[in-house]
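Quick illustration for those who missed Monday's session on complexes.
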Amino acid sequence: MLSLVTSLLSLLCTAVFSTASPLEPRAPAWEFNVRGNSGIVALEAIVVSPTLVVIFDRASDDPLQINNHSAWGGLWNLETNEVTALDVLSNSFCASGALLSNGTMVSIGGDPRGFVNNPTIKNGTTGLRLFEPCDDPAGVGCMLFEDPENLHLAEPRWYPASIRIPDGSLMIVGGIHENTGFFNDVERAANSVEFFPPKFGGVPRPSEFLKRSLPANLFPRIFLLPDGKVFMVANNQSIIYDIETGDERILPDLPNGVRVTNPLDGSAILLPLSPPNFTPEVLVCGGTNISDALDPSQISSQTPASDQCSRIVLTEEGIKKGWIIERMLEPRIMPELVHLPNGQILIINGGRSGVAAISNVPDPIGNSNADHPVLTPSLYTPTAALGRRISNAGMPTSEIPRLYHSSVTLTPQGNFFVAGSNPNVDTNLTVEFSSEFRVESLDPPFMSVPRPRILTAPSKIGFGKRFTVPVSIPSNLKASNIQVALMDLGFSSHAFHSSARLVFMDAQLSRDRRSLTITAPPNRNIFPPGPAFIFLTIDDVSSEGQRVMVGSGAPPPQTD
Ligand SMILES: *[C@@H]1O[C@H](CO)[C@@H](O)[C@H](O)[C@H]1NC(C)=O
Ligand SMILES: *[C@@H]1O[C@H](CO)[C@@H](O)[C@H](O)[C@H]1NC(C)=O
Ligand SMILES: *[C@@H]1O[C@H](CO)[C@@H](O)[C@H](O)[C@H]1NC(C)=O
Ligand SMILES: *[C@@H]1O[C@H](CO)[C@@H](O)[C@H](O)[C@H]1NC(C)=O
Ligand SMILES: *[C@@H]1O[C@H](CO)[C@@H](O)[C@H](O)[C@H]1NC(C)=O
Ligand SMILES: *[C@@H]1O[C@H](CO)[C@@H](O)[C@H](O)[C@H]1NC(C)=O
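Prediction with 2-acetamido-2-deoxy-beta-D-glucopyranose bound:
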């Protein structure tokens, strides 16, 4: 549909502009545009307001300075395309993060190491870094809060995963106690689950699943399901986890020995949930099928990655059917899967061969364990027939490789922030696959046509409640297809977007096309209480997102 609209539009524009001077606007199309310089390598990214993205790097020798040393945190301004340094106390390298039910962003875990140019840096493995809701469009006065003595994880975690759960708090899964060269290992693994704010006495709960999925189980891919349980993928294994009891139900392994968590990163995403049934489906793409018993000295940067996508419906019937396979247009290690407001999935970045991490294989390219960067994204259409879901028709090609330590997020403007890549230990500007500071946007064709708008939205929306918003809809749109998406844009780190979620909401457009009556998700399992953006898509043309608070905005744990 999108491509149909695009080609119709381009036909139209070719006709209209056929005698145009070179200064006339180009036909609407997908485009990469370099927007600016991030000052630090944006290896983690999370949208924290309509205009701001928090980015993190390792404590290193980045050009962006604060208090006479290199910064490793920053606030990227989507309006001005400029970065402001954030003062971070502890090393946020390879952390995770998410938003709480009261809108506070939490960066979780990190690296124990210091850096010579940052003499005051603190050990980040138990790090909890809070960024309170920020109302200033440029982030003036907004800062990170850390109190390592009093506010910290129960167990050290480098490479953990974290998601917001139905009471609005965070579930934190896995990782390793300290930095590792490549794989996780039995002695140092954080094979446990804990919560922030703490639950169940604050004692981390051991997980057999994490034990079983060693050693390639860093950054587990985890999703909240509509029944309040949590689906997890690590290595080539999957389970459903009961938050209340800690029970783990073993699901089928990924087919064909494909492994998808760090350092053998594929990616995974919860497909859009739609009323009335909100049937959950998970898509897992890329990674590699090499054995996890190999020492990295036995792995090559040239070993083809996996082109496999595996999809499962998480109902009893779907679990019985198991994983259904489809193929990307190319193999990808470290791909990113990101929701579009119309329910399609962007597949972007990564390499065709090798594995994640830095200088472990005997034949690194520069210092990269991966090679042959994929520069052209694809779109995955979940509702299309099997075998016809993936296409790169009309997609642009970037000049910038995005391999290990890169990030992508949908923005409130409706385009994608694409940044980072640094398969090097610190800043290295002279090597192939050098430290990447250029920020690009990937702009959908609708960025250059008249778009629908949600003129205002209530600041809070209640579960199951109907609410009406004023809208404006360009007159050229017939409005034959109306989609309203409630979205968590996720925390991007290591080819995974923690908490990313798209829930479609039933919506009725008034006859005069000036107001839209929307029904919020029925309960906190479908969309856990917390900040979200609402996007309106009419005939595949998406609006900008309107920020709302789902639920009361109270701190976790929220109870009814
Ligand atoms: C930064 O360094 C300069 C020169 O050494 C010094 O005068 C200044 O006080 C330092 N500023 C901070 C915030 O440490
Ligand atoms: C970092 O902190 C953790 C948790 O307190 C501790 O176990 C570990 O030894 C520390 N590592 C270093 C290098 O200081
Ligand atoms: C998953 O990986 C383990 C080894 O890590 C292997 O024993 C098992 O057969 C794999 N499962 C499948 C379905 O290939
Ligand atoms: C592993 O992946 C490679 C590259 O995609 C493929 O050629 C090979 O057939 C796969 N092996 C198995 C056992 O699936
Ligand atoms: C960049 O990486 C290359 C390849 O490993 C290495 O020879 C060089 O010393 C590195 N440069 C810096 C500044 O670290
Ligand atoms: C949100 O809740 C967390 C956890 O209780 C707390 O640390 C933080 O200060 C709260 N933020 C706001 C804005 O209430």
